[in-house]
Write a structure and sequence with these properties.
Number of domains: 2
Helix content: 40-55%
Structural class: alpha+beta
CATH superfamily of the largest domain: PPM-type phosphatase domain
Distance between the termini: 20 Å
Radius of gyration: 29 Å
Strand content: 15-25%
CATH architecture of the largest domain: 4-Layer Sandwich
CATH topology of the largest domain: Phosphatase 2c, domain 1
Number of strands: 12
Largest sheet: 7 strands, antiparallel
Shape: elongated
């Protein structure tokens, strides 16, 4: 027995005045500004300390620390200038105190010179490591594009946009996946999340994507596509041996959007295998959570299932947008441990197209988490243009004003107001 879908309406749009700075950049920018200011502040602090204390006290440790602080974060010339400034400050203070001809003064100055030279060496090592990391990033980005190519902007009469947000800044690909394809049966897509991390997860992603590309063209039903993915993962697990065998599973949601019928109507058929439910955003700001009527096990656990796959069909009206995502979105937490709820955050908001929706969503989740995340996040949005709707350039989302009384939406079959 199915249950009524959850119907969510806006109590008013949530306005934001921070523009595109919600990527966490204010926090990161503030940290960078502090680091930039730290070496000169340490030197100035050392000078103030030396002037304010008796000659028996020395600020040499602070002068030595300044170039070491600069080494990992600044260029070689800046690190060199910081070291020179530290040495000059040390020598100048000894001249000011009249101790420049004493052995302790010479020892302290040589210490600052030596540490500054070591800071230059550290800077060189860090820069070389950064160059190698940049090369690794290029390789990882190329691998991501090969495994998860960016979908075309228009496919089967729909507008399409996708995002892949890695949890780590230096990572480009992980266990989240998406693919969308125009087939003789309509537009078909898959969004999923492979259990595990590292190369095994990437290999599982490649298996699922490869099997989907083939099955989406050949299988007449969406249920058949899901079964092909199930068998592909089972074959790969059998092919492997010992510790290399697949021991995980893949949550996934598959969808099919047939071409419009004679009356111009379109629908979406969905098979959900243990994945977060998609959202259907309407042109008037309404939102439906497309929960499955019956729960199903993830891919890779099909032999434990008590019933076969069954696709569920929903209306897909003009102007509506389908949003698919992985649990990196719905399980993102703020500082107090509160999960991000995409349905409540998006309800009542209107976006010109899928690109704007995903831009705003990425902004909002990073604002929610403070810029950090512990899991990768894959997003896929498909919009059905309204009749006569012109092509739109990428713009910021349009947020409706807060009404005193939210207008009641027209009743839709199977929806709960």
């Amino acid at each position: 027995m199915g249950h009524p879908q959850e119907r969510r309406r806006a109590d008013g749009g949530r306005r934001r005045g921070d523009g595109r700075t919600a990527y966490g950049r204010p926090a990161y920018g503030g940290a960078r500004r502090f680091i930039r200011a730290l070496p000169p502040l340490v030197i100035v602090g050392g000078v103030a300390y030396d002037v304010a204390t008796p000659p028996a006290y020395t600020a040499a440790p602070l002068f030595s620390a300044a170039p070491l602080i600069a080494a990992p974060f600044f260029s070689t010339p800046t690190t060199l200038l910081t070291g020179i400034a530290a040495v000059l400050a040390s020598v100048g203070l000894h001249v000011y105190n009249g101790t420049v001809d004493q052995i302790p003064a010479l020892t302290e100055t040589l210490t600052v010179v030596t540490v500054s030279a070591l800071a230059l060496l550290v800077n060189r090592v860090v820069r070389r490591s950064g160059e190698r990391l940049a090369s690794a990033r290029v390789i990882a980005e190329t691998a991501q594009k090969a495994v998860l190519p960016t979908p075309v902007e228009r496919i089967g009469g729909l507008q399409c946009a996708a995002r892949y947000e890695a949890a780590q800044a230096d990572a480009f690909i992980g266990g989240d996946l998406f693919a969308v394809q125009d087939t003789p049966h309509g537009v078909r897509l898959v969004v999923g999340d492979v259990r595990g991390k590292g190369m095994e997860a990437v290999e599982a992603v490649a298996v699922v994507i490869g099997a989907f590309r083939e099955a989406a063209e050949q299988e007449r039903s969406l249920e058949g596509v899901a079964q092909r993915l199930e068998r592909a993962l089972a074959r790969e697990g059998t092919r492997r041996h010992g510790l290399d065998a697949f021991e995980g599973f893949t949550t996934a949601v598959l969808a099919e959007i047939p071409r419009a019928d004679g009356a111009g109507e379109r629908s979406v058929r969905i098979v959900n295998r243990g994945h977060p439910p998609p959202l259907l955003l309407y042109a008037d700001g309404g939102l439906d959570v497309l929960d499955p009527a019956e729960p199903a096990l993830p891919l890779g656990m099909g032999e434990l299932a008590a019933w076969p796959d069954r696709a569920e069909e929903r209306p897909y009206p003009p102007g509506a947008t389908l949003l698919f995502y992985t649990d990196g979105l719905s399980e993102a937490r703020d500082a107090e441990g509160v999960f991000y709820d995409p349905a409540s955050r998006l309800a009542g908001r209107i976006f010109p197209g899928p690109e704007e929706l995903l831009d705003a969503l990425v902004d909002d989740v990073r604002l929610h988490t403070g810029g950090g995340s512990t899991d990768d996040m894959a997003l896929l949005a498909l919009s059905r243009p309204a009749a006569g709707q012109p092509e739109r350039r990428r713009t910021m989302p349009v947020v409706p004003p807060v009404p005193s009384v939210p207008p009641a939406p027209p009743d839709r079959p199977g929806h709960q107001a």
